[in-house]
Amino acid sequence: MAGQGSGGNVIAALCNFFIPGLGQLVQGRVLKAIMFFLVVSACYAMAATVILFLLWPVGAIFHLWSIIDAATYKGGN
């Protein structure tokens, strides 16, 4: 990956917009991809129930964090 603001990071951020963690997976960061996917999916799934509806902001924050993290990734050297 070239660096922050590169075309690859833009594509990764767009991937995360649709599926949290997919952008990190595209960048080769598997553990972070799994973490974002599981946390956001669990929060959204629990928010779908009426009882735990208040968890959607937590899922939304992690979803936004995954997009920003993919967009600002500088590469591992």
Write a brief structural summary:
The chain has 77 residues and is mainly alpha-helical. The protein is built from 4 helices and no strands. It is elongated and about 40 Å long.
The fraction of residues assigned to DSSP E strands is: under 5%
> How does the helix and strand content classify structurally?
mainly alpha
Order of helices and strands: HHHH
What is Rg?
13 Å
Reported for the largest beta sheet, the result is:
none
List the domain count as a whole number.
Answer: 1
Head-to-tail CA distance between termini? 11 Å
Mass-distribution shape: elongated
Instruction: Work out the number of β strands.
Output: 0
Low-confidence stretches: none
Helix content: 55-70%
| Overall pLDDT score | 88
Number of alpha- plus pi-helical segments = 4
SSE order and pairing:
Blueprint: H1 7-18, H2 22-26, H3 30-47, H4 56-71
Task: Characterize the structure shown.
The termini are close together. The protein is an all-alpha fold and 77 residues long. It has four helices and no strands. It has one domain. Helices cover 66% and strands 0% of the residues.
Index terms:
77 residues; transmembrane; mainly alpha; single chain; transmembrane helix; membrane; 0% strand
